[in-house]
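Team,

Forwarding the record for the chain on the shared tracking sheet. I've put the sequence and predicted structure together so nobody has to dig through attachments.
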Amino acid sequence: MSGTQFAVVVLASLLGATVKSVAGMGYPVLAVPIVALALGVEEAVVIVALPNLAANVYLCWESRDTHDQARDLPTLLGFGIVGAVVGTVALVTVPEEPLLVLLATSIAVFVFNFLRRPDLAISERTGRRFSPAVGTVAGLLQGSVGVSGPVVATWVHGYRLAPRAFVHTVTLIFGVIGAAQIVVLATQGQFDLDRLLGALAAAVPVVIVTPLGVKLRDRFAGAAFDRVVLAVLLASAVSLLVDALT
């Protein structure tokens, strides 16, 4: 990996970590497409996986006092692990463009519906019915294209949780799914020295920025936090479309 490529990895990680530390999501959906421009999608997915897990562990632990507010976690986690394993195995064989376009479209529809009906919330019955599908799709996307955030965040946002509870829930799901992905990548021998060095370089801004972003997040509440999450979702939709069409 050249010096320029290392610089791209660090800058992409800095951008993703800044957004994630505030909103609880956004690291891979911002970092993977940028790194992919310099190294390719498969390389980007592998490099981003480790620092993303580190960010999720930190944010989840920092907000652990809200764990009792989470919903449908066993179902989302169980099906997410299965999806992540299948998606990672299929990383080099599944065409990603249709998945990315479909995902971006789904995000746009959710944001439009939320802006039209801000009080819209997922009922307990709806959560139990559809959380297996959500967990599976999130895992598949995490394993195949390195991005599960938009699916998980869109769904959990519908629970209408407080900001810290939202961050705890999504980072716990991201962390478990991401760990399953990393185990499969490791068993496949995907972590060569070059990729490990890239992951280490990406981890530096994560370690520095994440604690600072948590303090900044405390200034957001209610509608302000909703706007931050919706902005990240829209940015991720644009990023996914650009990645799919280029």
